[in-house]
Design a protein that fits this description.
Elements: E1 25-27, E2 58-60, E3 66-68, E4 78-83, H1 95-108, E5 112-115, H2 118-123, H3 134-149, E6 153-157, H4 179-182, H5 187-200, E7 218-222, H6 229-235, H7 249-260, H8 263-270, H9 295-321, E8 327-329, H10 337-342, E9 349-355, H11 378-384, E10 393-400, H12 410-421, E11 425-428, H13 457-471, E12 481-486, H14 502-505, E13 512-517, H15 535-544, E14 560-562, E15 568-571, E16 576-580, E17 584-589, E18 596-597, E19 601-606, E20 610-616, E21 628-634, E22 637-640, E23 643-644, E24 652-654, E25 657-663, E26 666-683, E27 694-705, E28 715-721
Parallel strand pairs: 4-5, 4-11, 5-6, 6-7, 7-8, 9-10, 10-11, 12-13
Antiparallel strand pairs: 1-25, 2-3, 14-15, 15-16, 16-17, 17-20, 18-19, 19-26, 20-21, 21-28, 22-25, 23-24, 26-27, 26-28
Helix pairs in contact: 1-3, 12-13
């Protein structure tokens, strides 16, 4: 769980005064959050999970997309449940809880789960190396079996905690320890990691009868979470420490000897060697400032690329030697040019990204209260340009974090663009994506918190929409692919933090983008090296040669982007994202100066910012023909008694407590359909359909309020007769 990769991102502030009046915040009344079978929130029939067997083992298909082994030509989209439990959030459930939880995940539309920080949970309170807590191990094994029974595949981290399986530590979820760095250089650290895989992945699960590493349910192993060398250095940066760990010095000198042979040759290449730096004595220094550009920094990047590629290959061989057949990835964050080169030989690319990152839960923690639409979905674009075309692409973590008041955007921004890009897995990071009830007696379940979407009605509404927009395939994948040419090491500059420029990544709002090994002189269509082109010129060329539809409304100067499919429109100036498809129409908006006409759905008025979506529930699920629709309306939510240090609500003083409060909101809606009879019923957060609040005959239009008689909600069921 880390969003530091966004610290370098450009920030555009979108003004919006917070609401303070007590009558604008409505307490949630539900206690149970278990979705009722057969309710409008039960997607198990709309999105059924297949039985996991040899034929339904996930593989990389011939075009680089995830598919089942029995149908390699047919891509599958995987909606991922992030399971990053700790004792503070309740830990792994007992057997009954695991059965209920896995079943609920299937009802919510999840078909893959990522187990994150399992090493920390297994070693919590343990004093001897590899002395896994037996009860926790049993619970993990049972949960894996329960997930499999419900058709939910697994993603597992080979290493999450920098403490690994060493005994005697009580800070396993913190950024202390240097195991992730030492894996690249130290034989003892590598042997420790290897034994961890043997002890956990290689151990037979008594509830499945097979070791996880041989199980058809295990789709992907991330060798180590966020283990890039440069990123690890940033995580451990302290004012009193040099920027680079001394463990890098000797390997770096050995690498320089192979490249330059002599001190004199190195001095000519760098031009800044000090008198006491000599290759012959291995005394060449690491850069003294990671943010100062220099030839020394360029060579350090090249060194890191070589080390990281070699390290990933060596760790992958361990898993293959143990009999693992699934996909392998690593270096799953930090979208820089250097890390892109380190990822080029991986079987699959995994990436983490966050909008408005929050550093912790302590008083004084702060965010920026900015809109993701206002910076043209930069957190999505950064990782889109880190993808390698022709390989499965997995978003192993993303979030638009609580308590940002624009986080309703995440339910449309990431699922819609993930579908447009044709990404394979989408995983919104959390302790767990759902909870079975409000009021569980654990520190991280007593209030909504960052990185904990289960208790947040706004985030949950977004995940509900993601199941339809992304997994069901309501938004189509672009037929246009825009490769970003990669030559190799010569693409490295003197800036360690360099990444693909914004003037190129905004192409991800129009068509599929990704890295591709290419001689720029032979690249017919795409972004060449060096990156001097601007997206407006590339799109103009696309129009001239007929790749982009002539009516496409994209205007880069105005911040207006229409997808090549015509289904997604982002308007930066107005803070709006619109999606119009055959099955779902939706809009996220920071303001509504004039009505939004999406086709079937028209949003005529709103009293504040929010997300509105209309999705067909019938089969086939088309808005012109369906009789049952799920209507999503998300505004904002806070905890009771939240206290901020500032009027703009950027700096937290106290997260408060339950019950959750939903910000009251109203929108006026109309559909371009008529019916002999129609009715609109609130749907509780547990799927309970309550008595209708609106009904009529003929034209369908109504004022929608989330202040429902049985309590505030984000869901409504619209039903038509005749």
């Amino acid at each position: 769980m880390n969003g530091r990769a966004l610290l370098a991102a450009a920030v555009v502030f979108f003004a919006g005064p917070p609401a303070h009046a007590s009558d604008q915040w409505l307490p949630v009344r539900e206690i149970s959050l278990e979705v009722r079978a057969g309710s409008p929130l039960d997607f198990s029939s709309v999105l059924p999970n297949d039985t996991i067997d040899a034929g339904h083992r996930l593989i990389a298909g011939p075009k680089g997309q995830l598919s089942f082994a029995e149908a390699p030509e047919k891509p599958v989209r995987m909606l991922c449940a992030s399971l990053a439990w700790s004792p503070a959030s309740g830990g792994f459930p007992d057997h009954d809880g695991a059965d209920r939880y896995a079943r609920q995940l299937a009802l919510h539309g999840y078909n893959i789960a990522r187990l994150h920080f399992t090493d920390a949970s297994l070693m919590f309170g343990r004093h001897e190396d590899f002395d896994f807590d037996p009860e926790t191990l049993d619970r993990i094994h049972y949960l894996l079996a329960a997930l499999k029974r419900n058709g939910i595949h697994w993603i597992v981290d080979g290493l999450s905690s920098p403490r690994g399986a060493y005994g005697g530590y009580d800070d396993r979820w913190d950024a202390n320890g240097n195991l992730k760095l030492l894996l690249h250089f130290d034989e003892e650290a590598f042997a420790h990691w290897k034994r961890s895989q043997e002890k956990f992945l290689g151990r037979v699960n008594p509830y499945t009868g097979v070791a996880p590493i041989h199980d058809d349910a295990l789709a992907l192993v991330i060798l180590a979470n966020e283990n890039g060398i440069e990123f690890d250095g940033v995580v451990h940066d302290r004012p009193t420490k040099p920027p680079y760990d001394p463990a890098l010095a000797t390997p770096f000198n050995h690498w320089l000897v192979k490249r330059y042979t002599s001190t004199e040759t190195l001095a000519k290449a760098w031009g800044d060697l000090e008198d006491d730096e000599r290759l012959e004595t291995a005394s060449v220094k690491l850069p003294a400032d990671r943010y100062a550009d220099s030839p020394r920094m360029r060579d350090l990047q090249a060194f890191i690329v070589d080390v990281e590629r070699s390290s990933a290959a060596r760790m992958s061989k361990v898993l293959r030697d143990l009999g693992y057949r699934g996909l392998i990835s690593t270096y799953n964050n930090w979208p820089t040019v250097q890390t892109g080169l380190s990822r080029r030989d991986l079987e699959a690319v995994t990436m983490n990204t966050y909008h408005d990152w929050v550093g912790g839960y302590s008083p004084g923690s702060a965010l920026l209260q900015t809109s993701a639409i206002a910076d043209s979905a930069n957190y999505m674009r950064m990782i889109a340009a880190a993808r390698w075309l022709g390989k499965p692409f997995i978003v192993s973590e993303y979030d638009h974090l609580f308590w940002n008041r624009y986080r309703y955007e995440a339910g449309l921004v990431m699922p819609a663009y993930a579908a447009l890009q044709g990404w394979d897995v989408l995983c919104r990071h959390a302790h767990g994506p759902i909870a079975l009830a409000y009021g569980e007696p654990y520190p991280h379940k007593k209030a909504m918190l960052p990185y904990a979407i289960a208790l947040d009605p706004v985030a949950r509404a977004g995940e509900t929409l993601a199941a339809l927009v992304y997994r069901r395939g309501d938004v189509a994948t672009s037929a246009i692919t825009i490769p970003f040419a990669v030559r190799g090491e010569e693409d490295l500059g003197e800036d360690m933090q360099a990444r693909e420029p914004d003037q190129s990544t905004d192409l991800a709002l129009v068509g599929r983008v990704g890295l591709k090994r290419s001689d720029p002189a032979r690249l017919d269509i795409g972004v060449v090296q060096p990156r001097t082109q601007v997206s407006a010129d590339i799109l103009a060329e696309f129009r001239d040669i007929g790749i982009l539809p002539p009516g496409n409304a994209t205007d880069v100067e105005r911040g207006l982007y229409e997808s090549s499919t015509g289904e997604i429109v982002l308007q930066r100036a107005t803070g709006q994202l619109r999606v119009s498809t055959a099955s779902t129409e939706a809009a996220a908006f920071s303001s509504l100066r004039e009505p939004i006409d999406l086709g079937i759905l028209r949003i005529e008025r709103a009293d504040g910012n929010g997300l509105v979506a209309l999705s067909a529930l019938d089969t086939p699920a088309t808005l012109p023909d369906s009789r049952r629709f799920l209507l999503v309306f998300a505004t904002d939510a806070q905890n009771t008694g939240m206290v901020f240090r500032d009027s703009e609500e950027k700096v937290i003083e106290d997260f408060g407590r339950l019950p959750v409060l939903i910000r009251k909101g109203e929108v006026d809606l109309a559909l371009s359909r008529t019916a002999a009879k129609w009715k609109l019923s609130p749907v509780g957060l547990d799927g309970t359909v309550h008595p209708p609040v609106e009904s009529g005959t003929g034209p369908i239009s109504f004022r929608l309020s989330n202040d429902a008689p049985d309590g505030p909600t984000t869901y409504f069921l619209l039903e038509l007769e005749g």
